[in-house]
Design a protein that fits this description.
Blueprint (H helix, E strand, L loop, with lengths): L1 H17 E6 L6 E2 L3 E3 L4 H5 L2 E2 L4 E5 L7 H13 L7 E5 L2 H9 L3 E5 L25 E7 L8 H11 E10 L2 E2 L6 E2 L6 H8 L6 E2 L3
Parallel strand pairs: 6-7, 6-8, 8-9
Antiparallel strand pairs: 1-2, 3-5, 4-10, 11-12
């Protein structure tokens, strides 16, 4: 409770100080002179030039706290794929992205997580074993999930299985520009070892092109 109060005491002054005209958040549509910095600066992320999860000067929206990659996905769906102009059924991951989809009247969606469990009252099955019928979705959004799952090949097989003919998936992961192959090690289980090797305590691999 005390931490919650501290965060609220920080939130509103920071929000007011960030207001301006330089940036507009496509989620909440508020305008700011800056977004907030966020991300990690672990040595492995710098050494391997990892994009996604790294320190970003203009990352979080001061009001809705959406991050840069979530805003990028939404703008891609809206402006490049025009998915909100027609009836589309989504399988989506991440709270802010699916909250935005929820208020778009043409978007029907289900929620998948990297682990089983309940989130915000929606079904949230394990993406490695989704309980959906074959050919259910037009679009699958998978926002920084594959670097967390033990069997990413099974997860991708499941994504392919639930897509309708002509459907497509957007699979975002952190990308290491300095690597020529993906690195993974299932024997690493401690948070410290995973941070040193992969750049985050709950990651099991670092991906490349």
């Amino acid at each position: 409770m005390a931490l919650r109060i501290i965060e609220l005491l920080k939130y509103y002054p920071r929000l007011m100080l960030s207001l301006g005209r330089g940036f507009q958040c496509p989620f909440c549509r508020w305008r700011f002179r800056r977004f907030l910095p966020a991300g990690f600066l672990y040595p492995v992320l710098v050494e391997k030039k990892v994009i996604g999860g790294h320190w970003h000067e203009h990352n979080l929206c001061p009001r809705c706290l959406s991050n840069a990659r979530e805003r990028l996905v939404f703008l891609f769906l809206k402006d490049r794929m025009s998915v909100f102009e027609r009836h589309v059924r989504f399988a989506a991951h991440r709270a802010r992205a699916r909250t935005r989809l929820c208020i778009e009247p043409l978007a029907k969606y289900s929620v998948c997580q990297r682990r089983p469990g309940s989130t915000f009252g929606h079904e949230s099955p394990d993406i490695q074993r989704m309980p959906f019928a074959d050919k259910t979705f037009d679009v699958v959004l998978c926002n920084h999930v594959m670097e967390h799952v033990t069997d990413d090949r099974m997860a991708m097989t499941e994504v392919f299985r639930v897509l309708r003919p002509g459907g497509w998936a957007l699979l975002q992961v952190p990308i290491a520009l300095a690597l020529d192959r993906t690195i993974e090690d299932s024997t690493l289980t401690s948070p410290a070892d995973r941070i040193d090797r992969f750049g985050q305590a709950d990651h099991v691999r670092v991906c490349t092109w």
